[in-house]
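Here is one chain, start to finish.
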Amino acid sequence: MTVEDVVIVGAGPAGLAAALQLKRHGITPRVFESEGVGGLVWNANLVENYPGFPDGVSGPDLARLLAAHAESGGVRITPEKVVCLIWDGDLFRVTTPAGEYRSRTAVVASGTKPKVLRDLDIPGALRKKVFYEIKTLLHAEETCIAVVGAGDAAFDYALNLGKRNTVTILNRGEEIQCLPLLRERASACPRIAYRSNTAISRLTAAAEGGMTVYCASPKDAFTIYADYLVCAIGRDPQTGFLSDSILNRSPDLEQRGILHFIGDVKNGNFRQTAIAVGDGVLSGMRVYRVLKGGQGAV
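Its structure:
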């Protein structure tokens, strides 16, 4: 079995930046990505803090640019889902539904997964109308969409979807946790409504083809119609594929410079494209030094 120099799990901004940096050093990593290049950037309404775009750039446009850069840079994408990453004492082993790969070093750029609604019974017929990301909803026009959440993602999703749809943001609490700029833009958009202290108690199928959303607040109970429900209530690191051999030894493997966690998978609430790209470039430089016999730390 061929042994890779580097495997990268994830082809979002962090993973692609790492791959492109390694290519500059003459190293071709194997990048695993099963859901399409670009990661969560596809969901973003407008990326405004990424240098080089003075007017900002839409998330889908930036994702397409990242994919084009990867292709022109010769980045090799393996469209397989990583189900397990193991350290066997000598090499990393990557298992996918299609087979197994081995590598001297590994970069985990797997991003995050959404927190799901656990206190709401969603009827089976409506489950295909409940979303936790919006990249597959960007085609929607003249529909009614309910967004659950009060953070940056919820308001950014609302702004993106509110260009061609009617959107209602449902905040289960009182506090708005998003950037003031996003709140101002949502307030100025005639297609976006906002309700605080509003919890969803029940969903039922509606005759129109969507759903009836039963809402409750301290003052009253009411219903709204929605074609789709989007939940933006937080995200957790995507680490379910990591074996105990990785989790238990990660400090040592990272210290040696043969294992790197980069981007959203390690950055908590600091999920920014520019931060992820910087992580990726730095990890690429560090991996190169290790493979060439130098020290892992920079």
